[in-house]
Design goal:
Number of strands: 11
Number of domains: 2
Oligomer: single chain
Strand content: 15-25%
Radius of gyration: 19 Å
CATH topology of the largest domain: Rossmann fold
CATH superfamily of the largest domain: NAD(P)-binding Rossmann-like Domain
CATH class of the largest domain: Alpha Beta
Helix content: 25-40%
Distance between the termini: 37 Å
Number of helices: 10
Largest sheet: 6 strands, parallel
CATH architecture of the largest domain: 3-Layer(aba) Sandwich
């Protein structure tokens, strides 16, 4: 048995092509174009790469994009004021704060300060609450992308045993809620979980988002499981790797995402969708999805 590869890049490219076509048609009627502002604090190399990828995706499909960069020394109060200015700017439809933030800015209030309707990352408590209740809101980009990847397999989610390894507010908790809303029986594991293998071995769907290279090995995976690897790490040789031992786990999985070209491209595609959706909800965009 050899697991089929879930090609996140190909799926994301298809979504971006559709969005580009829709926005092109929208522009011909002289309508205002959706605008996304990405905020970066400091000069973390990985963050800079991610910010530039988001900016490039915006340019490719026709979303107006602006990057606001601030020094690590910016005060907490000044940082919140900058977000406040963007909240009041009617030309801005989406606001995204690139993680990680310096320790003195790393507070939940940062995400609570972003206007709910402009929260394209889906991190505001209000949007998390809508996700909890299964209502239509702005979903976190990475979990939203994961659900699209699962949908692409054609496998019915209802009734499946799903295990999420990782409990972050960005991926673990929201994807667990989304899977619950789809009728899965969900277990959420974390660093305190005793006998992780006991849980992962029972998973029909296994989502791993812990940031540890190859933490999931072949013997921990149920035959025929769908594996979603959210990890993006560097091994001892400096090579990019996920949280899952891809080469060996694919021997027993039915479907598996690679790293790279798996979940990563879908996060950006979902962010583009969210920006357009935010524009619609604000009544400034009438393009179809």
């Amino acid at each position: 048995m050899q697991g089929k590869i879930i090609d996140g890049k190909a799926i994301a490219d298809d979504i971006l092509k559709k969005l580009k076509k829709e926005l092109k048609e929208y522009k011909t009627n002289n309508n205002p174009i959706p605008k996304l502002v990405v905020i970066q604090v400091g000069e973390d190399p990985a963050s800079t790469i991610y910010v530039n990828k988001k900016h490039k995706a915006c340019e490719e499909i026709g979303i107006d994009s602006e990057i606001k960069r601030f020094p690590e020394t910016i005060s907490y109060s000044d940082f919140l004021k900058e977000i406040g200015k963007l909240n009041k700017d009617d030309s801005v439809n989406g606001i995204l704060v690139q993680m990680p933030l310096p320790e003195h800015l790393n507070h939940k209030q940062v995400f609570e300060t972003i206007a709910v309707e402009k929260d394209v990352d889906g991190f505001h408590p209000f949007n998390h609450g809508k996700n909890l209740l299964g209502k239509k809101g702005i979903a976190p980009a990475t979990p939203k992308g994961i659900m699209t990847l699962l949908e692409s397999t054609g496998v019915t989610l209802e009734g499946k045993n799903a295990v999420v390894v990782g409990r972050s507010n960005i991926v673990g908790k929201p994807i667990a809620l989304m899977l619950i809303n789809e009728g899965c029986t969900v277990s959420v594991c974390n660093s305190k979980t005793k006998n992780l293998k006991m849980f992962t071995k029972e998973a029909d769907i296994l989502v791993v988002a812990v940031g540890k290279c190859n933490i999931i090995t072949e013997d921990m995976v149920k035959k025929g499981a769908i594996i979603i690897d959210v990890g993006m790490n560097r091994n001892k040789e400096g090579k990019l790797c996920g949280d899952v031992d891809f080469e060996n786990v694919k021997k027993v999985a039915s479907w598996i995402t690679p790293v790279p070209k798996g979940v990563g491209p879908m996060t950006i595609a979902s962010l583009m969708e969210n920006t357009i959706e935010a524009c619609k909800q604000q009544g400034k965009c009438t393009c179809s999805k």
